Amino acid sequence: MTTQQLIDQIKKKKSFLCVGLDVDLNKIPQHLLQTEDPIFEFNKAIIDATHHLCVAYKPNIAFFEAYGLKGWQALEKTINYLNKNHPEIFTIADAKRGDIGNTSTMYAKAFFEDLAFDSVTIAPYMGKDSVEPFLAFKEKHTILLALTSNLGAFDFQTKLVDGKELYKQVLETSKTYANSENLMYVVGATKAEYLSEIRQIIPNSFLLVPGVGAQGGNLQDVCKYGMTKDVGLLINSSRGIIYASNQEDFAQAAAQKAEVLQKEMQAILES
Amino acid sequence: MTTQQLIDQIKKKKSFLCVGLDVDLNKIPQHLLQTEDPIFEFNKAIIDATHHLCVAYKPNIAFFEAYGLKGWQALEKTINYLNKNHPEIFTIADAKRGDIGNTSTMYAKAFFEDLAFDSVTIAPYMGKDSVEPFLAFKEKHTILLALTSNLGAFDFQTKLVDGKELYKQVLETSKTYANSENLMYVVGATKAEYLSEIRQIIPNSFLLVPGVGAQGGNLQDVCKYGMTKDVGLLINSSRGIIYASNQEDFAQAAAQKAEVLQKEMQAILES
């Protein structure tokens, strides 16, 4: 999917919501555990109930890998279901990969070819040759970790490197990578005040923003400091939407939570 | 496996060799492609031929994920084969994971519980709460990226943070994490001269050292600067061993290459 197609979807749906699929068998409605593939059944129900309210889904790969072969199978079924039924929706493999060149190429094949995601999240620690193999894929997007939403972000990301925070060095250095137009960035909503400085470095890039909701980030602040003329934001909510209820009404409850966010986004877009 | 058990194996086998399993279907002997599970058949033959010469195996998870469900199945079979037939061998999931706390917990479950590896490689960019969920597992080991063997290592890892290289900040900060005694570190052999300074920060920790062989690192230099009284090194070789031949003799050819390294290690240990 091209960036323009994503922007068109945002304008059409009046939403820049991404729904995170972090499926924990201890948290989903217990009646689903009787089905053959509870993870996929949960995802399918969530997707069926929310697809008109969001522009992206973000399966969190850890939550599939933790269930081994069955988890990987559920991941395949989830991405295939999305690509078949909702090809207009942007898909994000939240995998936080990154390795030496030939290994990154294999990860890129895993997520862009075998699973056919539109994008994948990548950790920057290993530098240029760990990121460029992902950028080499046309019409695919590499979402580089810049400033994450967790407390550990202050361990290294905000430390000064040559007088500038490491996450800003990551932003600036990554602009020099081959095919850097395929880059998006992770910037946590819990650090909204950093967004205006980030926008000075990457004025137009899309940002994937976790941390609204369960982690305490504020949508209004993120938009105030981070929005571009083409929106340029994908706001992720995972637990706040998908675990709105753990009863039989879970999918409708998720849709209600998603709609609250979508309406708030619509108001911002129309203001 | 405890660190002491690993040290005992090193002394018994007179080897601190780790064999990397980076199985690329384009590089393995073509006759294996006729079998039902070429990736596992390749690994099994390599393990059968080399297990007496090494103390660790390191499946590179990207090379399994790239083949989707079949790849994951081959990974399961490989680790199960190792744990059943060679429980004395240290196993490393080279996965380079790392995410916010609850997600890292799921990755830890995937590699320590579902797949029952002894250790997993982790990227430090997201800091403390992305690493500690792995450290919480008893008798498991978290191998944190410090200074990697690729060119991109110079993008960020060697940059000065408060007057000290980022990779040294990673080493020092990680020592304050809960259960830090379960930490090992990745330090590339291509940067052997850095090892004496690294040993001032972490005098006793085990180092996983990639880059000997295909990437140009030198075993003598690594040992000179990095070895401790308990050895403290696992030297990885992947392509240099497993792709020694792409004919029917591939496993024997791999064993010959492994034996050259093991003999070199034995000479160092006995000198």
Automatic annotation (TrEMBL), chains A, B:
Do you know which CDD domains this protein is assigned to? OMP_decarboxylase_like
Task: Show which residues constitute the signal peptide.
Answer: none
Q: Which GO molecular-function terms appear in the entry?
A: orotidine-5'-phosphate decarboxylase activity
- Alphabetic keyword roster: Decarboxylase, Lyase, Pyrimidine biosynthesis
Q: Where is the active site?
A: K96
Chemical reaction(s) catalysed: orotidine 5'-phosphate + H(+) = UMP + CO2
**Enzyme class, UniProt record, top EC level:** lyase
Q: Superkingdom, according to UniProt?
A: Bacteria
- Per the UniProt entry, the Enzyme Commission number(s) are 4.1.1.23
- Where do the Orotidine 5'-phosphate decarboxylase domain residues begin and end? 16-254
Pathway(s) it belongs to: Pyrimidine metabolism; UMP biosynthesis via de novo pathway; UMP from orotate: step 2/2
UniProt similarity note = Belongs to the OMP decarboxylase family. Type 2 subfamily.
This protein is called Orotidine 5'-phosphate decarboxylase
Q: Which organism is it from?
A: Mesoflavibacter zeaxanthinifaciens subsp. sabulilitoris
Gene label: pyrF
